[in-house]
Queue: 2 jobs
Job 1
Amino acid sequence: MESVYHVMGQIRRGLVGGAALILAISFLWGEAAAQETSLADGARVAELIAEPSELQLRVGETVPFQVRALDVDGNELHPRLLMRGSRGGVGVSEEGVLGIGVGDHQLVVTVALPPGVEEDAPSLTVPVRVDWPAIERVEIDPLAGTLYAGTDQRFAVRAYHADGSLRPSPEVGWESSDPEVVAVDPYGHAVANQEGTATLRAQVDGVVGELVQEVRPLPVERIQVQASEERVRAGDVVRFSARALDSGGSEVEDAPIQWSYMYMPDDSIVEPGASAVIRDGRFVAQYPGEYTVRATAGPISSWKTIRVDTRDVVRRIEVQGQGRVSHRRTSDFWVYEGLDGRDYAITGTWGSDGWSYFWDVTDPTDMVLTDSIQVDARTVNDVKVSPDGRYATLTREGASDRRNGVVVVDLAEPANPVLAIEYDEGLTGGVHNAFPMDDYLYVLSGGERYLIVDMSDIYNPRTIGEVDIPGSRIHDVWVHDGIAYSAEWDTGIVMTDVGNGRWGGTPQNPVVVSTYPLPGGNTHAVFPYYQEETGRFYIFAGDEIIGRSGFALEGGNNRAPYDPDVPGSGTPRNTAGYIHIVDYTDMENPKKVARYHVPEYGSHNIWVEDDVLYQAYYEGGLRVVDVSGELQGNLYTQGREIAVFKPNDPIGYVSNAPTTWSAMPFKGNIFLSDANSGIWAVNLEPEERPIP
Amino acid sequence: MMWLAMAGLLALGGAADGQPAPGAWNPGETEPQATYWVYVGSESADFLHRIRFGPDGAHREADISMAELYRQSQRGDLFTESEAPHGVAVDPQGGSIYMTTGHGVPDGKLWQVEAGSGRLLADPVDLGRFPASLGVSPDGNYVYVANFNLHGRMVPSSISVIYGPEMVEVARVETCTMPHGSRVHPNGLRHYSTCMMDDQLVEIDAMDLAVSRRFFLGTGQEGPLDPGDRGFHAPGADHGEDHGHAGHPTPDPAPGEGVHAHHAPDPEHRDRDPTEMDAAHPVPDSPHYEASCSPTWVQPSQDGARLYVACNASDRVLEIDYEAWEVRRTFETGRGPYNVDVTPDDRLLVVTLKQGDGVEVIDLVEGELRGQVETSTRVVHGIALSPDSRYAFISVEGIGAEPGKVDIIDLETVERVASVEVGQQASGIAFWRMEGGL
């Protein structure tokens, strides 16, 4: 009689994240099964056969499964087998194999060899596809307004599992009971052809949802289109509005307005085509020319033409001075006015023995190194100074004792900084960034959370609070108007009330308000900015992506100076990423509206001041960008770049390899740190260029 | 990659202080009769290196960058900042190198690289927080990784179990706080790790993948524990006597407790809406257990009869009887024993002294110290022993921008015979193969 293994092992459960996991299970004997084969007696498993050889099941479903063990002659053996599934994906129960998480997983079956048996035994890997649970119901979201004949609108669908969870991005099959009334395409885009009633059906995994849709005659006779401006520059946002009016002149408020545009270039050879962005009536053009913006409701349309000129913001950059650091990699910097009235800067170093340098930059054409501090670290990643100039923070990573933390420097005598304390309580895991305020210091701990530290006595700091988003990893934090904005990779922008009070938060009791994920999940830095002209509040949130795998320009990842024995050394590094611009004017409903994306380089630290973005763009150098006015679209393609400076240094740490880390405007100059060349000061020449 | 600037220093020849220059022989020493290869990670340089030691000296033979491994991966993850290679192991067949990286988003990973070519064999596996030490089962099927959680909250962490041939994590077994060291018993039936902050030795049944035994290592109180005892930092655990704020002298592989949240949320909660969380955590000083042993490593003897545990805080190595589950002998060591290993002939115990900046060799048969040797730089880390029981390869982290080192110790004379520079912060080290000799 053929023997069959039944799974009768014990299920062990561990709790991780609240989800039950199936750990190991070993096969034992079923009621009708034969006695266990002892492999110590010389029997050898030559083959394992899975039945079935692969599995497909749904989350929560259990399917039968068995494994047969055969010796070299094909005889059935019954050794102890170990069967384990991908953690979080597949488990084993008494009834068979259980689907836990959606995806492609594996079941691994191995033979439990007794001690002393050294021969290899076969193992088996069974592919398991776990699909979503079955759909229980499908709902078509009704339109907010009326569906008028001659117009078209998109319908949305929600597909629910039995447990009430939504199927993400379901595949929907659409149809209409009467296409003569309403026709619908595969994307849920419906066109109302004539008055009447039709039933729309959306099918997901065989489950159908229906919506009875009435079509009424379109009462619109004409559309009035208005523009907030009639002549603008490329990159300026123009607000178009449209009023659909009936025969009596009354507005049809739920008439569906769709926007489009036509473009006539000034020179069709230079700019044969152009792109603009129009979204909910907000229009921005990238190139100069004439744009005709059209509002349409079914067969009725109207338009308005506006004139777009060049932005003409380019200015020349002039180098003022350089504080060269060519024997170490430079990291971040901060420039400030010292308590003695002179101007100073601090630069950190990366992978370079924990050095920080102090500079007198009162004369930016002659920056003088005045002091240096070395701490037990491999990297001083971030340096900042409190707004009142009282103290500086140097962050530590790679300490020899693995107790990292933050170094607080007393700046009472700015030319002679004194180490106040090395503070590492709760900060042993490496401090990547910190944000000092006059009274409190916000400091990252091990990439997991940030602590809030009372700095009233810089020699005796005291941690009084923390913010830890479960499962999230943090890279940076910036505090503005009592709100802490943290950059947390794939979590995105996290907004926490740490004293603003609107949501009841204090430094001692911070209150997390919202999270806003960004595309790509590489949120690395944030800079909050209030734009006085428009009253809008933006968060500039930047990626950091080291490497360009998958891009046409991939390049390399070198950081080392040239060495003839080391291939690739002495070449620039290549990075990727860009700046996302999110409108937080309505702080509880943020919306991404724009980006600044230089395609062949990677973004790093951000500074915005007086409607100018000072963007460190790694090998792309310092980018100075006009961010005045309402923002929309890709600022890079709108002619908003004022100037670009690449700090090439033939005798830099890596020669002629700009790697701009940070930039700050200060007293009419722009300071920047560059990993391969130290600190620079540049400024923009006046707008009006002298005509020779 | 600061060390690359010093690549030109790898020249043979004696140094001014009489110690062998990197890669050079000490002229008074006998040349090796075989050629040996080891792999070592450099945690702050993001490299995996291969070192060759033989009659022609010691050399850094190959360098594999983390950036290159990411480039080969199909997962689409992007290499961001320091990945921190920490633990290194070789599968028993010598075909694969397993390596953990302590950093990452969200957490660290396990990597599998082809020995020799350095080619990535599979996409990495996401593990827990700061995965560190790892051990491979004798049949080569399973890799056990300690999720060290070096800088996280003081809560129990886990051992990840990965099926190596397919690089899939099949289990995560909770042990106790700050698990470190990961070794599989020669019989393949048991796995061992220690918990630095709970003074525990933990045994996992490799068949059931569950904790089968625990042993308390606190000084003067050594003995078996209930298998369900997850230590002093487990939620709901009785903290017992208030030992006050932990303070460890530096340098120290185990950071002190520090100030931390009184109510630590489950670090694995990723499906909760963060805005519903009360992110405010008052941080009073809380009573907790101060480890007296602070175990950092466990190593079974080659015959499996004994387990050796390094007590970093009490400067001892405990020899524990595998069957009887009790301490048999205690070896006093120099300052800060960190890693331990036993020669294949079960005769010698090699101990790295992290705070003591050296290596000790203990004769297990005689039960006495055979010798002690200073390492070429500070912050000693891991050990790899040659199959002929002749040499110990010691990784030494170094400090700051100085390169990491691999020191090679002759176990017969207990002298350092060679030293090779690697990237900053040399970390995990594992023996790959030898040619000639035996």
Job 2
Amino acid sequence: MMIMRESIVMKIHYGTAIGAVFLVAIHIMMRMTQDFHESLEYENVIANYEMIGYAILLELILILISVHGFNGLRVILLEMRQGPLYEKGVTYGCIASMIALVAYGSNTIIKAHLGIV
Amino acid sequence: MAQVNQEISTEKSQTVLSSSKSVTLRISRSNPEIGAEEKFDEFVVPYEKYSTVLDAILSVKTHLDHSVGVRYSCRQASCGSCGMKINGKPKLACFTKIVELDSDVITIEPMDNFPVVRDLVVNFTRMFNNHKKIMPYVVSNDSEITPGTNVKEMLQTPEDVEKYIQFSSCIKCGLCNSACPTMAMDTSFVGPQALAQAYRYIADTRDHGKKNRLKIIDESHGIWRCHFAGSCSQVCPKGVDPAMGIQLLRSYLLGLRD
């Protein structure tokens, strides 16, 4: 079952991990611009979404972590059991779940950015 | 002939064992073919300071129970036949001295991650198939010596040899595959033995099969399933270091080396 070469998948896996570490570090550092509990108050969270730069940062974190996480899950599941049907199911299942999660998260980010929430 | 064999057998079983020291061998006995469950038989055998675990097993076979199933050949860590789990660790029985184990009881089991044939004998089919799959030979259109006038040698510098010589010491004993945690879970994983041999031939300057070999190992149960536990290198009796070979192979696939 090969959608793309495993080395390309793993390059994406490592790349998304490095990218996520940097972006999540920025995301955490942004909490330090005010008191931590204050940064988590509803108005401040919505204000973050309304900043276009921060909305893009959150969207990128969502994509990077989803791609990395679901590929990691695929790898774990492939090691647990083997078989053509199972492996096909795991691969397509993980891709579908990843797309669903990114779509749901993006929907939240876009709505919050546009002030619909 | 049968009478001669009987005489030899009688002579062997009457041999006086001179050693004052003795050790208890707990040998795993099983026969999956007839559905016999695994059990342990205990044998007390004498040993000398130079005795190996294989010597002790052969002593059991000669004097106590000739039905113990064990595969062995060279008795000098060259053939890779006598791999087994000795006190929980994969080792070559002929390369493990009893005194080194520092134990009065030695538990001997067949290697993990291989189907058991009987007692201590395991089936190497999967390992050999994976070994064959990676094309364990120099792929080249040039023959080393062309018949006729165009005699050609494929010369290598000592530096060229240095790149792969460590990996060419593999004796296919299967200890690395037995110690590998991924092999325990993933029945399709190509395994450290085959991956180390893939590196051995890719790193050889005479070889032109790199592209094909990298394609073979670059699949969902190939090189990327290695978690770098390093247990393969720890148990290798020949110092091959498959874990390093796997990391070096990955550097080819990640484009970090040509």
